[in-house]
Amino acid sequence: MIADSQSEGSQTYPECLVHSIQQYKPDSIYTKRKDVLNIKSRLLTLVQNPEYWETLTHFLRGECSKQKYDETIDLYLTTNETRILHNDLIRSILYNAHFAAVPPPGIPMPQRKLPDHINMKTQRPQKTKVKLFCSYSASDLGHIPSIEQLSSRVGYLTTLKVDNSALALLFSELKHYIISVLQQCTEIGQNNCENSEKVIVSPSQIEYVLSANTNGLHHLKAKLAARLGHV
């Protein structure tokens, strides 16, 4: 029942319903397990054919068709008592799986076993690479260079001729730049460490220096471009 005057979407319920909800307590049906072994033993005294039990097991595991299951049930459950016990057995299994504690005290968890005809093999590396490639999104694939782009880059590098003096200059400037970055990292480490002899340069310090010193990298590029132009 919805009240005539509602404020901010509030909803009013009958007092009897509110009282019943407040007084509700979980029944013992949700805290006790069904005795599956007792029901199974009673059914086993009436139905002892192994085909029935194998079909029931395969059906509960999803390894048997509904048609074969119905045919087996009609063949071996001929009395009303066996059908009732059969239904009680399935209900008790489902009940314990949903409402009771899993696993029950003192009973270990069963280990799943594959049928004998199934042979698990490791996937081939090529198949794994194909699956990994298929898992990429369109945005990820946009960053992957095509075969034409890779061939043009490789062709450019193979035909590129660099003067030895230019390489020496490049290595020299890169050496000075790396030394400068490491010096800044050691200064950060000395500020965080009392004993200067145990200063260790970490990747996080290098990343911090590089992110905070973008101007130095631009200066290095400009300096190299200017000096290489005169070589």
From TrEMBL:
What GO terms are given for molecular function? Answer: transcription coactivator activity
Kindly indicate whether the keyword Nucleus belongs to this entry.
yes
Can you name a GO cellular component term? Answer: nucleus
Query: What keywords tag this UniProt record?
Result: Nucleus, Transcription, Transcription regulation
* Transcription keyword on record: yes
- Coarse class of the primary localization is nucleus
Location within or outside the cell: Nucleus
- Note the InterPro entries from the entry: Hfi1/Tada1
A GO BP term here is: regulation of transcription by RNA polymerase II
Q: Which PANTHER family match?
A: TRANSCRIPTIONAL ADAPTER 1
Supply the name of the protein: Uncharacterized protein
Q: Which organism is it from?
A: Tritrichomonas foetus
Question: What lineage is on file?
Answer: Eukaryota, Metamonada, Parabasalia, Tritrichomonadida, Tritrichomonadidae
